[in-house]
Amino acid sequence: MLKKMAVLSLIVGAAFAALMLTSRNADFAREDFLQMEHSAATVWNVLIDAQNWPLWWPGMERVILDGEMKEGARLDLYLSGIPGGEPARVTMVSPHEELIWERDGILGSLTRTRLRLTEAQDSTTVAIQSHIVGPQAVLARYARRDDFARYHEIVLRSLNLHLERSVARERESVNAR
Prior knowledge:
Blueprint: H1 2-22, E1 27-36, H2 40-47, E2 60-65, E3 74-79, E4 88-94, E5 98-104, E6 110-119, E7 124-133, H3 135-176
Antiparallel strand pairs: 1-7, 2-3, 3-4, 4-5, 5-6, 6-7
């Protein structure tokens, strides 16, 4: 029995080593978008208010932004059911257009979240992209593609609902004066 366990451990270890060696540069990306009847400035103001993401971002329990939303800022994200890890780093801030942050994933992977705004005449298309490089990308590619799409849809719809409610509250406030 001990011999069988040793052989099984050796096989599992070799498989894990092969996964690590062959998937170091594996890549997975999923982007989804939703058109919203709000200006890019209105959407942007909600996106850079990281401490209030838990009000509309499903699964986001708490966010701590070190300073203001700018490149290099530390972003501590606390997600439901996911143990706290290394903080994310904001890597791109292009006002009213794009916000990107990166954090370490599992097994030496890198995860990147990108929010991109494209304004049209009376609306803004909001895109969310999850991008993973490394061994975690292999897992995401084969087991989680549909999960990413569903989650992106929920996040985008929740953002839109939050914006609609905010606009309605502002109108009520103005009408009450």
